[in-house]
Amino acid sequence: MTNSELANQLRDLRDFLIIAGYEESHATRYTQIARYIEKLAEPIEDMKREHRLSEIPGVGKLVAQYIREIMEDGVSSKQKEWEEFAPITVLELVRIPGLGPKTARKLYQEYGVESFAKLKQADEAGILQEVQGVGPKLIEAIRSHRPGA
């Protein structure tokens, strides 16, 4: 796994945790750690192999464990723990430009929108116009979004 790939996985973890209802101020630490990892002069794989992940600013024993899990299994125990509060498919929502984790959390918690397919259904049912924070620009972004493209 490259430094950039791991950084993206940590950002996904942040977004997922926020959507699932985890304390936002704690989830944002994964953004800071992702930035440090992207700027590392050496491959993260080397640091993992040499048991030096805790040398990364903001990474203690527990976060180092989550990083190892992501690198080895593609998922951390932190994510698994919070999957009882939201399905991982909620990350499909934040792939839409302009739709951040707070709006995705509102869509999921208040309207049951847990995936891009459910978001399209909510749009077709006219629900999105009711959602505070979802304006015409975001609705257009949703309608024109092509997952995986």
Summarize the structure.
The protein has 149 residues and is mainly α. Helices cover 58% and strands 0% of the residues.
Account of the 3D structure:
This protein has 149 residues and is mainly α. The protein has helices at 3-20, 24-27, 29-39, 44-49, 61-73, 77-82, 101-111, 116-124, 136-144. Helix 1 (3-20) packs antiparallel against helix 3 (29-39) and helix 1 (3-20) runs parallel beside helix 7 (101-111). It starts with a helix and ends in a 5-residue tail after the last helix. The chain has 2 domains: 3-82, DNA polymerase beta, N-terminal domain-like (DNA polymerase, domain 1), CATH 1.10.150.110; 88-144, DNA polymerase, domain 1 (Orthogonal Bundle). Helices cover 58% and strands 0% of the residues.
CATH topology of the largest domain: DNA polymerase, domain 1
Mean pLDDT: 95
- Report the uncertain regions: none
Helix content bin = 55-70%
Largest sheet: none
How many separate structural domains?
2
Radius of gyration: 17 Å
Instruction: Give the end-to-end Cα distance, rounded to a whole number of Å.
Output: 22 Å
C-alpha geometry? elongated
Count of helical regions: 9
| Structure class | mainly alpha
What is the name of the CATH architecture of the largest domain? Orthogonal Bundle
